[in-house]
């Protein structure tokens, strides 16, 4: 956890979803959430909510949002943001031990915690807490980073330091456990990368039903200038349409930079 805290203490999260691949991740996550969330004013728990990017949009749509994150720098940004002043609560906390009552929410978002919990028991605890806090019929949306997508990411950057990243790549693919031993910039911090089938099993193991996977960025990860494409309304709709078309294609799950698992209580 210390490596993760150090990574995020650099305050790199606040603009991640406004540049590069993050633009596609944000657009596609909101696209899927718009189809699977109950209508407002439902109560949503945004667990591991970063600097409030999704909470901000959900508030605009009329939801009651409880925000929780483990990083003090993120909570500081959220509490200072005037667009987030209407949060139902903003808490420094842990996905494995939520401060919310049983059956108190209509939806729980885990858009980051599962890929920062390296132990299967910790991921199970986070999903158990999401299940506990949901009302019957409530929905969970949990994001992962697939192991193969990590390799695609290395190749998309032209393997900047093969001597450093190859051992990381091979270890992560074989074990799921990602480490950046020297804490180098440009590489992710300590994490767990799934095989997509693992997420299905974890959600079902927590008791969730009707579980489905959604490839988020999918083929859009191949775009060289993501900002230019998404700023063109015609091209943006083309990208979104293609991603929707392929979002349940099992052949896409492995290389999509993020996959969203959705289930119901």
TrEMBL record:
Residues 45-141 form the Methyltransferase type domain. The keyword Methyltransferase applies. One of its GO terms (molecular function) is methyltransferase activity. Keywords: Methyltransferase, Transferase. Pfam families: Methyltransf_11. CDD domains: AdoMet_MTases. One of its GO terms (biological process) is methylation. This is 2-methoxy-6-polyprenyl-1,4-benzoquinol methylase, mitochondrial.
């Amino acid at each position: 956890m210390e490596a993760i805290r150090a990574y995020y203490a650099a305050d790199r999260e606040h603009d991640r979803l406004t540049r590069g691949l993050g633009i596609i991740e944000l657009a596609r996550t909101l696209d899927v959430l718009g189809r699977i969330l109950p209508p407002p004013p439902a109560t949503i728990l945004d667990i591991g909510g970063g600097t409030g990017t999704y909470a901000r949009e959900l508030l605009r749509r009329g939801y009651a949002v409880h925000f929780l994150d483990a990083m003090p720098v993120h909570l500081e940004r959220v509490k200072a943001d005037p667009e987030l002043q209407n949060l139902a609560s903003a808490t420094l906390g842990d996905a494995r031990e939520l401060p919310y009552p049983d059956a108190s929410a209509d939806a729980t978002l885990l858009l980051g915690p599962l890929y920062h919990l390296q132990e299967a028991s910790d991921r199970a605890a986070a999903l158990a807490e999401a299940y506990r806090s949901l009302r019957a019929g409530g929905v969970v949306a949990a994001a992962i980073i697939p192991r193969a997508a990590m390799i695609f990411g290395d190749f998309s950057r032209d393997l900047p330091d093969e001597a450093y990243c190859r051992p990381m790549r091979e270890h992560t693919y074989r074990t799921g456990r990602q480490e950046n031993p020297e804490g180098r910039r440009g590489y992710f911090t300590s994490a767990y990368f799934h095989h997509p089938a693992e997420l299905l099993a974890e959600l079902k193991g927590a008791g969730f039903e009707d579980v489905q996977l959604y490839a988020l960025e999918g083929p859009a990860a191949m775009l060289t200038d993501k900002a230019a494409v998404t700023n063109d309304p015609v091209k943006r709709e083309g990208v979104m349409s293609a991603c929707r078309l392929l979002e349940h294609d099992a052949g896409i799950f492995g290389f999509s930079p993020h996959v969203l698992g959705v289930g119901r209580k």
